[in-house]
Amino acid sequence: MGGRRLMLVDPVAVNYVMSRGYDYPKPDFVRDSLASMAAGYEGLLTADGEMHRKQRKILNQAFSAAQVKSFTPIFWEKAIRLRDIWLDFTASPASFFTPADPLTTPEALDTLEDVDPEPATTNTLSPSALTTSFLPNPFASFVPSKASPTFSTTVTSRHAPSNTTEPSTAPCRLDVLPWLARATLDVIGAAGFGYAFNSLEAAAERRENESELARAFAVIFATARKFRVMTVLQVWFPVLRNFRTENAAMRQATATMRKIGLELIEQRRETVLSETEKVAEKTTSIEGDKTVLGRDLLSVLIRSNVAEIPTQRMSLNEILCQISTFLAAGHETSSSSLTWTLFALARNPAVQHKLRAELRSLSIPSSLHSHDASPTQSPSSPNLEADPHSGFFERIMQLPYLDAVVRESLRLFAPITTTMRVASADDVIPVGLPFVDRRGQQCEEIRVRPGDIISIPIQALNKNEDTWGVDADVFRPERWTQGRQDEEEENRKGACGRRTAVQGLWGNMMTFGGGNPVNGNRSCIGYRFALSEIKIFLYVLVRDLEFTIDPAIEIEKKVNVLTRPCVKSEPHRGNQMPLYIRRVPTDIHHEDVYHH
Ligand code: HEM
Fold first, then answer.
1. H-helix or E-strand containing 13?
2. Distance between terminal CA atoms of the chain?
3. Is residue 591 scored above 90 in pLDDT?
4. Alpha-carbon distance 172 to 154, whole Å?
5. Are 24 and 424 in contact, with CB atoms under 8 Å apart?
6. Which among 245, 396, 425, 523 could disulfide-bond with 505, CB atoms 3.0 to 4.6 Å apart, if both were Cys?
7. How many Å lie between the centroid of ligand 1 and the Cα of residue 180?
């Protein structure tokens, strides 16, 4: 229809485009779709040009390595809670295998299949309405996924298996996807904004009264994710974008998000402002005042609203947009990645065994051993210095095999499989290797015109055999440990002296995007946050639980912004990742095996 599309796989060309974020911005239709999830065009995901540059500079403070370290106790607390819920499930296999929940009977499933997730006529969605083929929804309160007919119906205790229940080693089938999504939603709420979604707790207690913000998000996500022919037509015919409709539920959800955002800002404003004043007075004070400026996301946002220098100031609207942007960008990406990692481990028992051995070789400090381990600091004022366990958390981050597993999983299961850019002017894109065009002519560059849409196939690049070798599509964490440095160096140059790997933000991959601070850095600002969260969750979950999968089940990737799993033979059940979990008894020998 007259549009031109370019899909780049040449690493030199990919690097060229991705490192010029402002010359090659996101196309309007991509921004529109992101804006519908992130409540507007003034958040970091959707802002462009100078507004983006300013925001990125301000927000970087909240994602520095030191700041992210201070969130580790929050990651730990949520991971422990999830582990305990799952351990409780494994302790009650009888209830697990009793199909007591009416929602999971075949009749109930049929009823559910008829439920339309479109919230057009309702202001609030019933939880079951959200558990449909579109939504593996953490917001959807606790309704067992249609794929988990064996959910326990017992109310679980807060602790690991009690002494009265003989711990079972029989595996239980569990859809891990919504559980992980809930855990990561709780994490980003607490770490980013000191907001308690309590979505894990609500699920564990089978309550439906989740937080107001979670319900509002459910509506927004349900609408944003729904596939509509109109959305596709709007990509090709921009004039149709003037006919966007917003239903009443969506309007109310957006208003709720705004209201809660304002409340969060109000609650924290006083502390932040008094901190700022104290620090300003410090220059004149004689006593060494220990006040330091909070660098957590909400504090950074609030301070920017009162900044006097325009290049450091964000409007109230920009701040409110960031809250929804970070909630949207920061939770399902991590949970998708954790879900796929558990899947990869379930499919590769030897890797899982080796990983568990490494994890168990690092003992948990006795002060953290309690099942009720709670964060050592308040989410609202994370402070690295105050955390007595930061050394332990740091050692988790450095575990080599855990690192290799995470890298390999983010390579093969990139949560964001493709990104898009649009050429804003005539340009010539260099390539690493000449190519032959459709007229049979050899080309050493690619000429683009304004408006040309460029796709960057992140996942395909991650499986490029030129870069990763003939086993590019095999899950093999060892590729990151054996002679990793040499391999990376080799990739950079390639056998014939050309660059075969992309220069992404992380690990010769575009999994977290790429960018250049001068020409536009659109890479993932939360990558340290995500890596740290993923590693802590894996450390806690894989130490004590074994994950397996029914070999007869074929899992497929379904992509709708993010990559989500589906069971091929059960498309009507929507997104799910049914795994079998089993408690792994402590095994001293296990640890020895790793050391040898
Ligand atoms: C495994 C987890 C994650 C993956 C794979 C991931 C991936 C990405 C990618 C590929 C981009 C660039 C998109 C593009 O250029 O089109 C991006 C941007 C972004 N990510 Fe992430 N992300 C993850 C986790 C997070 C987390 C935890 C947060 C926040 C706490 C976050 C916040 C953002 C934001 C705000 C942007 C926009 C940055 C900008 O345009 O300046 N992400 N992410």
1. helix 11-18
2. 63
3. no
4. 14
5. yes
6. 523
7. 18
The pLDDT tens digits of the residues spanning 29-79 come to 889 888 877 668 999 999 999 999 999 999 998 999 988 999 999 999 999
Can you tell me which atom of ligand 1 is nearest the CA of 420?
16
Find out whether the beta carbon of 191 lies less than 6 Å from any atom of ligand 1.
no
Contact 520, 52 (CB under 8 A): yes
**CA-angle at 411, arms to 407 and 412, nearest 5°:** 125
Pairwise CA distance, residues 505 & 321, whole Å: 25
Q: Which atom of ligand 1 is nearest to the CA of 21?
A: 15
Contact 50, 452 (CB under 8 A): no
Pairwise CA distance, residues 115 & 126, whole Å: 10
Strand ranges inside 145-260, DSSP E:
172-175
Query: Of 93-102, 507-516, 538-547, where does mean pLDDT reach its minimum?
Result: 93-102
Please determine, for residue 491, whether its predicted confidence score (pLDDT) is greater than 60: no
Beta bridge partners of 446: 429
Distance CA(500)–CA(570), nearest Å, equals: 39
**What distance in Å separates the CA atoms of residue 241 and residue 595, rounded to the nearest whole number?**
61
Q: What is the structure's pLDDT at 350?
A: 97
Cα separation, 27 vs 50, in Å, equals 17
* Residue indicated by tokens 């099942």: 371
Whether the CB of 29 sits within 6 Å of ligand 1: no
Greater confidence (207 vs 426) lies with 426
Is residue 509 in contact with ligand 1, taking CB distance under 6 Å?
no
CA dist., res. 42 & res. 40, Å (int)? 6
Beta strands in 370-468 (DSSP E): 419-422, 427-436, 442-448, 453-456
User: Sorting pLDDT into bands at 50, 70 and 90, what band is 112?
Assistant: very low
Category of 49 on φ-ψ map: left (φ > 0), alpha (ψ -120 to 50) or beta: left
Ligand 1 probe mutation, 184, 319, 524, 533, most atoms within 8 A of CB: 524
